[in-house]
Amino acid sequence: MMLEAANNVKLSVLDLAPITEGSDARQSLLNSADLARHVEGWGYHRFWMAEHHNMTGIASAATAVALAYIGSQTQHIRIGAGGIMLPNHAPLIAAEQFGTLAALYPNRVDLGLGRAPGTDGATLRALRRTYDSADGFPADVQELLMYLDDPKPEQTIKAVPGMGSQVPVWILGSSLFGAQLAARLGLPYAFASHFAPDYLQLALEAYRNNFQPSKYLDKPYAVAAVNVFAADSEQAAKRLKSSMQQQFIALRQGNPGPLPAPLDDIEQQVDPMALAAANHALKYTASGTEEQVHKYLRDFVAATGVNEVMLTCHAYDHQARLRSFELAQGVQFES
């Protein structure tokens, strides 16, 4: 079903600070800052980073710390978490961290919240979590919203910094749960379609149909994530994508690791069933030349009606990753 495209659709960036084979976390974070400077110049709206733990291929575990660095290297692009896995944190701590960012970078900070652990079971326990920690997610979100709001006269616990900052809070999701919670609380919603495609349309429908206007938002505002691999030729883009396909296969097999070098003929070098599973997870991927990527993004917006597309690119070569975002940014959406 084709939907009416949202007016003034924005493009934004989700960066996981990928660590490539043979490199390290320092270089990854330096690359993230370089990417942020470039996409700011190209007109992207937001630059988000995400919390993951015990992942040797991702350097954004301490998300608030990484964002403080990104903020110092940019001038006006919005920075934020896509997201903070709230059950890993006391709501007060998250409010203080993002209140601090808002004090440093006024009117530029977003806080996206997820309820997944962002890691494996053993690491979950190392985070002092239990498997039922996510059950309190709705209450934790509301507690966090309270800390970021103006304090009440009777309020004894305050986030300093944080109170009164009104940092915009988003609900993230890859199923219907987050969509329903975002709708009930009247918050903006972001769907992780770049790796969890199956419930995208159902989640967007649930969010829009059940949305309750709030002091935060008067009508639904939805974002969906898309992988992007843009290059000067279709074959070059396909090669670029092969690094993420390999990494996803390894992750599904319980062997997470650094982002591997690309392959020219991935179909000949990996198990076809594993590749098919990875390709399904990466269903929402814009790959190809500038023209092909632009068409894909226009069709994606027409099919989903989202207000904003969050692009992410796990490319082995940093310059190729920059080029991918550069080629993607020129897309013109129909109003």
Kindly describe this structure.
There is one protein chain. The chain has 335 residues and is of the alpha/beta class. It is 40% helix and 15% strand. The protein contains 11 helices and 9 strands. It has helices at residues 25-41, 63-72, 91-104, 121-126, 137-148, 176-185, 200-210, 234-252, 272-281, 290-304, 318-328; strands at residues 10-15, 46-49, 78-85, 109-114, 169-173, 189-191, 222-230, 285-288, 308-312. An 8-stranded parallel barrel has the order 1-2-3-4-5-6-7-9, surrounded by 9 helices. Strand 2, helix 2 and strand 3 (78-85) form a beta-alpha-beta unit. The radius of gyration is 19 Å and the shape is globular.
Question: Could you outline the blueprint of secondary structure elements for this entry?
Answer:
Layout: E1 10-15, H1 25-41, E2 46-49, H2 63-72, E3 78-85, H3 91-104, E4 109-114, H4 121-126, H5 137-148, E5 169-173, H6 176-185, E6 189-191, H7 200-210, E7 222-230, H8 234-252, H9 272-281, E8 285-288, H10 290-304, E9 308-312, H11 318-328
Helix pairs in contact: 1-11, 2-3, 3-5, 6-7, 8-9
